[in-house]
Specification:
This protein is an all-beta fold. 0% of the residues lie in helices and 61% in strands.
Length: 452
């Protein structure tokens, strides 16, 4: 019977090297190794070792422009071989050998000229004005080449030239004639060989105009050369302020002047066209400027038809003091719009205040209000007692009773009153009441007494 081997598999991780505790052998590279323990009289033990040496050294080639930053953050600016050390996840040192090629970016300055525009070497953009620009292109090694480009482009904005003149002028190139005020463009060749655009602001100071001229009766032309006496279209020429000819077409309108006689009548007052106020007959003359600007002479002959009316208070009636064409008797107060009578005389049948509107020669005048009192006797006939009523208060009223034979048989002092009962004589007959007061005209009222 053959003895069996005792095989033991193990995996070992180290940073740099591993020395076997069995045989003392040292291994520095990862791999599969065996080691044996010999036991006299017994089976050997074989160790199969999977060794992982974790320190790593790698060589990397890189190319960069101007500088290179390693994974550890170091920056290198020139070509060469550099070692970078770092710790891996197990805490073992690892090494990277960087084989670097550092290519340099380039800086250049160029100056260019173009008449209209310039496209940069990178073809990324086009400029249209002079200036200093920065452009970037790639070199053959893949690095940036930074170009400072000084561009000169002649300005395309037109130079403006101001020209004033009489008649026709040509632009500088002679290609175009200018006859009217305005802006004109001209193209010239510059010393760069580029087209130059010129802007000419031309002011034509030779003028022409069409206008209407208004005047009274006759007038001279604006130049003073011609004298016009009829309306119509005329032509004239004179120098303007710039010293150039001014050609004028004139539509002339000549207006006549007027002299007018005005005869008119008025009632209260007359206001003339110039604002003067007249209240009586008058003759005068005023000179007015018409809408055309020409004078009009007005001769006025004014007749005043104004008058002043008043009311004459007679016994038992009212009368106008003016002989007129029309009369309107009105009550003052609430019924003032109602015409009570249209004759010169008016006999009121009630006490109130009255006024008179009078028309004469187409003029009206209205008097002031005048109080008028009438005595009301009730009943009439009577059996012996009457009510004397005025409709308004009478001051210091006195009544004399006269019998049918004309004799004064009684005198009554009634004082201030509006209504009063009065006892009459016992005998039947026609009696007369003579009534007076401070604020009324004397009144005569007949009363018939009938005794049963």
């Amino acid at each position: 019977i053959l003895p069996e081997w005792n095989i033991i598999d193990t995996s070992i991780n180290v940073c740099y090297e591993y020395t076997s505790p069995i045989s003392g052998k040292t291994w520095k590279q990862s791999g599969f190794y065996t080691d044996t323990i010999h036991r006299p009289g017994a089976c050997d033990s074989v160790f199969r070792i999977t060794l992982n040496v974790l320190d790593q050294t790698r060589t990397l080639k890189r190319k960069a422009c101007d500088s290179f930053i390693t994974s550890s953050g170091k920056v290198y600016y020139s070509s060469g071989t550099y070692v970078d050390k770092y710790q891996n996840q197990l805490g073992c040192d690892s090494f990277i050998v960087w084989d670097l090629t550092i290519n340099k970016s380039s800086l250049a300055r160029i100056a260019v000229f173009d008449c209209y525009q310039y496209t940069m070497p990178s073809k990324k953009y086009t400029v249209y004005e002079s200036g200093v620009y920065v452009d970037t292109i790639k070199t053959k090694r893949g690095c940036d080449s930074i170009l400072t480009v000084v561009v000169t482009i002649p300005p395309r904005r037109p130079d403006t030239t101001h020209i004033k003149g009489c008649g026709a002028y040509y632009v500088p190139s002679g290609k175009l004639q200018m006859t009217k005020s305005g802006f004109y463009y001209d193209t010239l060749r510059t010393h760069y060989g580029c087209d130059s655009l010129a802007l000419i602001d031309f002011e034509q100071q030779q003028t022409s105009s069409l206008f209407t001229l208004k005047a009274c009766l006759e007038t001279f032309s604006p130049s003073g050369k011609y004298f016009y006496t009829q309306s119509g279209r005329y032509y004239d020429t004179m120098l303007n302020k710039a010293g150039c000819d001014s050609f004028m077409t004139i539509d002339l309108v000549l207006f006549d002047t007027f002299i007018t006689n005005v005869e008119t009548a008025f009632c209260d007052s007359f206001i003339s066209p110039l604002g003067r106020v007249y209240k009586s007959n008058a003759e005068f003359t005023e000179i007015l400027e018409s809408q055309s600007g020409c004078d009009s002479t007005l001769h006025f002959n004014l007749t005043s038809n104004g008058f002043s009316a008043s009311i004459l208070e007679q016994t038992g009636y009212l009368e106008s003091d003016v002989l007129a064409d029309e009369y309107q008797w009105l009550e003052c107060g609430s019924n003032k719009g109602k015409v009570l009578a249209t004759d010169a005389k008016f006999v009121p049948d009630f006490s109130s205040s009255f006024k008179l509107a009078v028309k004469k020669n187409n003029c009206w005048d209205t008097t002031e209000c005048l109080p008028f009192y009438t005595a009301g006797v009730y009943p009439n006939p009577t059996t012996g007692q009457i009510l004397l009523s005025f409709g308004a208060e009478v001051e210091n009223c006195q009544v004399i009773i006269i019998d049918p034979l004309g004799r004064e048989i009684n005198f009554l002092q009634l004082g201030n009153m509006e209504h009063q009962w009065i006892d009459l004589p016992q005998q039947s007959g026609m009696y007369v009441l003579h009534i007076t007061g401070n604020n009324i005209e004397p009144l005569l009222e007949k009363v018939l007494v009938v005794r049963k």
